[in-house]
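C-alpha cells in:
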C-alpha cells in the first residue's frame, strides 16, 4: 500500500510551510483510492485538530463528494493523532509532516488500521 501526492497537493504543502512561521496546520486530503494506492489530488486546510466535531467531518465529506481520503498535520502531537484513531477514519491516510532545522519538509505517510485498537501503520510515499 502507498500514497501518491499530486504536484498541486505537494505545492500547497510547501506553500503553507513558506507562508507560516508556526507550521502548526492540520487539514484534509482530497482524492481517491485505486487498488492499493491512495491518490491525493489536493489538500484542504481545516481548523486546528482537523475538524470541530464528527458531524462537521461528515458534512465536509459530503461537501467534497465523499472524496476525503485522509488527514495531514504539521508536527502533530499525540492528542491530535488520537482524534483520528477512530472508526470513521479506518482505512484512511494520515500524513505526519515535519520540518527539519533547514525547514526541509519530511512527509511520513500512514494508513489508519484496526486490530483490537486503532493505530497508524506506515506506508510508502510516491510523488
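Residues out:
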Amino acid at each position: 500500500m502507498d500514497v501518491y501526492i499530486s504536484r498541486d497537493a505537494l505545492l500547497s504543502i510547501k506553500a503553507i510551510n513558506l507562508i507560516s512561521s508556526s507550521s502548526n496546520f492540520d487539514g484534509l486530503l482530497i482524492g481517491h483510492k485505486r487498488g492499493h494506492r491512495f491518490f491525493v489530488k489536493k489538500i484542504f486546510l481545516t481548523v486546528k485538530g482537523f475538524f470541530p466535531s464528527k458531524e462537521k467531518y461528515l458534512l465536509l465529506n459530503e461537501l467534497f463528494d465523499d472524496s476525503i481520503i485522509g488527514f495531514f498535520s504539521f508536527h502533530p502531537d499525540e492528542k491530535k493523532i488520537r482524534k483520528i484513531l477512530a472508526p470513521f477514519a479506518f482505512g484512511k491516510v494520515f500524513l505526519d509532516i515535519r520540518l527539519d532545522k533547514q525547514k526541509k519538509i519530511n512527509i511520513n505517510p500512514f494508513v489508519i488500521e484496526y486490530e483490537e485498537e486503532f493505530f497508524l501503520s506506515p506506508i510508502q510515499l510516491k510523488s
